[in-house]
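Suppose a colleague, Dr. K., hands you the sequence of a protein chain of 449 amino acids and asks what its three-dimensional shape might be. Before reaching for any lab equipment, you can write down a predicted structure in token form. Begin with the sequence itself:
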Amino acid sequence: MHRTTSARLPLLPLALALASALGATHVAAQSLQDLYTAARGYDASYQSAKSQFDANLAKAEQAKALLLPTANLAVAANNYNQDVTTTSNRTFSYDGQSATISASQPLYRPANAASYEQGMKGVEAAKAQLLVAEQDLIVRVSQAYFDVLASSDSLTFVRAQKAAVAEQLASAQRNFEVGTATITDTREAQARYDLVIAQELAADNDLRVKTIALNQLVGLSNATPKPLAAPVVLTPIEPADPEAWVKQSEELHPGLAQLKVALDVAKLETAKAEAGHKPTLDLVGSYAMVNNQKGSSSGPTAYDTRSNVATVGVSFNLPLFAGFATQNRIKETLALEDKARTDLEASRRTIAQGTRTAFFGVQSGQAQVKAFEAAEASSQSALDANKLGYQVGVRINIDVLNSQSQLYSTKASLAKARYDVLVGGLKLKQAAGTLKAEDLAPINSQLVP
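The predicted structure, expressed as tokens, is then:
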């Protein structure tokens, strides 16, 4: 009875370690949505994208000025000293003030109209660019979140394995002392124990590094992700057809939206270049007041003058010849238009390929999770069988040690595969251009409350 109980003791450290880890995360743990919200207000890359978005909106608004009237006020004050040489020399000295208000309203300027449309297209491009930044932040936070959980699980499993190997080492030493085992069992157990110590140090350092990366991303000093609640249920991919995801990417991907806008802007740039051959027509008007005040004079008596002049009319301009600059500008914009069209097609192909790759990655990951779950059950059975065989003498110590190593390695691989599927699902939506912050809610619901 004592030996049977001892054979099952290596399972206790794992349970205690897991319970300890879960208990620690309950203290002040944050959910995935909590950390994403923190990152939105802290991450430098996202804040830079927001500032760029605001700048693009302001730049687009500037294009409206090309269609609106302009007005100017000019004021001047001067002192004049004038010598006039005639049959009778005269010298005039007087002060003069002037004020002029002028205004202009474009009536027909095709280049301005094209620039205005480009500005409105800039708003669409800015929104797409900000959406790209938001989706990138969601994926980066999720990846960092589950990297910490995976490292924490690895450390937990390594420590549980260390406890099991330590017990196996103690058992081998006792058996050697009573003469029921050789020194080989003790040395094998000691070698495996030393190896696990090295693995524990590496796992502990990896967890520290991953935690620092998460803290830096979300702007916290003690970010503690909540673990997944058991049992972990991975939902299947919907829709299950990769081409359906590709179709979504062609319609909704913000990167493609940016390039479509870039093509429209290039076409408008060609229209602006062609406007170089077209006339322009403006409505212009001005009102000027000039006041010359009496000063000193060596001739006849000086006098004051004041004049008010108002003008209104239209200004017509027709380009005749600009040294072939307009023709060459049109050639340039047409070439750039072809480039924008080619860039759009190249990006469409790249995004379609990336979407298919992400889809099959998630599909393969779900299959791996099922395989690792089966492997975990098989490894546990193999460990139990090897322990029993070691007790009755048909298995040696190295068999038990190998079974323990395989079991804990499988557990760590299973946990990592689950995390990869969850992050892969977000990356699939990012590849298709449909990723939103609300997509974190289903994952959040699977975390320990």
